[in-house]
């Protein structure tokens, strides 16, 4: 049951924070590197000309002097040495999501136990270098490129984009609520790690290294709410020919992977809170008496209930048996983002067929319950995909245990029930209502 304190939850700034965005003296790194290059070259030169002699000191002084004056020759050499690699590395197509993945495969993520995995530029591990992209192809990710460069020696004709850029890798798509949301989790986690202090100036969305221009309305609204403003999704319109380099940049390619359950719950807490503020759903006055909200969230087409009226009547009766229970029925397809947020804010028990609309569950108060309905055949044949909403429930602190109900009756499949070929028949199945109430 709901307590008012939880209802009045505000978007707290997290305690026990880790250190903020690492600020580096980029120019110092740069000077050090140029210096090392100079010294090495000089050393080799001296060895050739005066074998094993102590170099005259004025040589050293003059070289240091020149370095601090940023020898244009050397800068040009550094610019020339910026090397672009394909964003999607086909050598790793059979391990696309593992380790360094096939996306920017030469670079490794920063990862501390239980925390989000991310790459940040410029950073210590990039030796102060920033990320540059030549990446506007939207058909083949191996035609898009990335490179690291020192800000003082950006590649020729580069456009320098100020502010913070979020670069996202999504293995599925930005339209589906579940797949979209999981690819956003690491950005929210990183944001929280930095005390929500820096807002992204732009987003660069990739799928398999291919540039994408949109995310779904629901996901876009959620991110707008979380990051306090409209999203600027980069299209690289004016930069078709030259590379683009980013002042500050964070790359995510592992979704929620590596994060502890605690961290995941914190991310969902933040998104829930921000979404409610954005939609003015925060002040949800349930009155003096405790009210239990029971919501039947319906979908159309595949995995819809065959007879919605009968199912609704059944739950209405169940609800009527409990004091303070308020029953609501809604179709997910005709609710705006904010209508979904508001509905979930007043829901404690969510009843819905397996499907993307269930992603909304994290917008309920923590510890709320989920009942998920599957058509016939799904238990044996649908594979791990059927557990995704159980995962969200766990990450967002909802109760899904014993919350699955599977229809024993379904379309006829000519093979044995365990045969994989049946899945294509069951996949689009609808859900009956016998014993739904039990
Ligand atoms: C985040 O907040 C904590 C606790 O208030 C503070 O110690 C830390 O310095 C803050 N970090 C940033 C990036 O502001
Ligand atoms: C930079 O752009 C100019 C004009 O588009 C072009 O002529 C030149 O070759 C480019 N330089 C490099 C190094 O790509
Ligand atoms: C749903 O079931 C009720 C009661 O059995 C029946 O009256 C109604 O016609 C059914 N509706 C549909 C759309 O099948
Ligand atoms: C919502 O969608 C369902 C199914 O598409 C439809 O039957 C219902 O009339 C719609 N409700 C409203 C209020 O538009
Ligand atoms: C959720 O339930 C757990 C365990 O029953 C409890 O410790 C926690 O305080 C609850 N959280 C909220 C927000 O009610």
Automatic annotation (TrEMBL):
All copies of domain Glycosyltransferase 61 catalytic, residue ranges: 296-371
Q: Transmembrane residues, as ranges? A: 28-46
Q: Does the keyword Transferase apply?
A: yes
Entry superkingdom = Eukaryota
Q: How does it sit in the membrane?
A: Single-pass type II membrane protein
Keyword field:
Glycoprotein, Glycosyltransferase, Membrane, Transferase, Transmembrane, Transmembrane helix
Under InterPro entries, the record lists: Glyco_transf_61_cat, Glycosyltransferase_61
GO MF annotation list: pentosyltransferase activity
One Gene Ontology term, aspect cellular component: Golgi membrane
Q: Where in the cell is it found?
A: Golgi apparatus membrane
Can you name this protein? Glycosyltransferase 61 catalytic domain-containing protein
Q: Which organism is it from?
A: Crotalaria pallida
């Amino acid at each position: 049951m709901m307590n008012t304190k939880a209802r009045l939850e505000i978007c707290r700034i997290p305690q026990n924070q880790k250190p903020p965005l690492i600020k580096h003296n980029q120019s110092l790194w740069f000077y050090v590197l140029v210096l090392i290059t100079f010294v090495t070259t000089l050393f080799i030169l001296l060895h050739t000309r005066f074998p094993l002699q102590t170099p005259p000191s004025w040589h050293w002084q003059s070289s240091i002097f020149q370095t601090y004056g940023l020898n244009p020759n050397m800068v040009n050499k550094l610019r020339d040495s910026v090397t672009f690699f394909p964003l999607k590395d086909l050598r790793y197509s059979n391990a696309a999501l593992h380790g360094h993945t096939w996306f920017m495969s030469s670079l490794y993520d920063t990862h501390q136990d239980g925390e989000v995995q991310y790459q940040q530029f410029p950073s210590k591990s990039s030796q102060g270098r920033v990320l540059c992209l030549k990446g506007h192809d939207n058909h083949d990710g191996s035609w898009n490129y990335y490179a690291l460069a020192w800000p003082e020696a950006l590649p020729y004709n580069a456009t320098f984009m100020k502010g913070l850029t979020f670069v996202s890798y999504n293995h599925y798509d930005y339209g589906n609520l579940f797949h979209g949301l999981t690819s956003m989790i690491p950005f929210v986690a990183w944001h929280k790690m930095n005390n929500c202090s820096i807002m992204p100036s732009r987003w660069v969305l990739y799928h398999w290294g291919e540039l994408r221009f949109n995310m779904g309305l629901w996901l876009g609204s959620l991110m707008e709410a979380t990051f306090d403003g409209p999203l600027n999704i980069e299209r690289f319109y004016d930069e078709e020919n030259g590379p683009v380099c980013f002042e500050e940049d964070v790359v995510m390619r592992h979704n929620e992977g590596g994060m502890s359950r605690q961290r995941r719950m914190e991310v969902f807490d933040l998104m829930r809170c921000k979404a409610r503020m954005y939609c003015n759903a925060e002040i949800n006055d349930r009155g003096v008496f405790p009210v239990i909200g029971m919501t039947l969230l319906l979908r159309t087409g595949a995995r819809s209930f065959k007879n919605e009226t009968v199912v609704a009547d059944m739950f209405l009766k169940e609800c009527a048996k409990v004091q303070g229970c308020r029953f609501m029925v809604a179709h997910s397809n005709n609710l705006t983002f904010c209508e979904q947020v508001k509905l979930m804010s007043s829901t404690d028990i969510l009843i819905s067929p397996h499907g993307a609309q269930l992603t909304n569950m994290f917008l309920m108060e923590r510890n709320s319950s989920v009942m998920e309905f599957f058509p016939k055949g799904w238990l044996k044949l649908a594979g791990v995909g059927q557990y995704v909403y159980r995962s969200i429930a766990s990450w967002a602190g909802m109760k899904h245990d014993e919350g699955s109900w599977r229809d024993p009756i379904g379309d006829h499949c000519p093979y044995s029930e365990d045969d994989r070929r049946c899945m294509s028949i069951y996949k689009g199945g609808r859900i009956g209502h016998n014993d739904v109430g039990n």
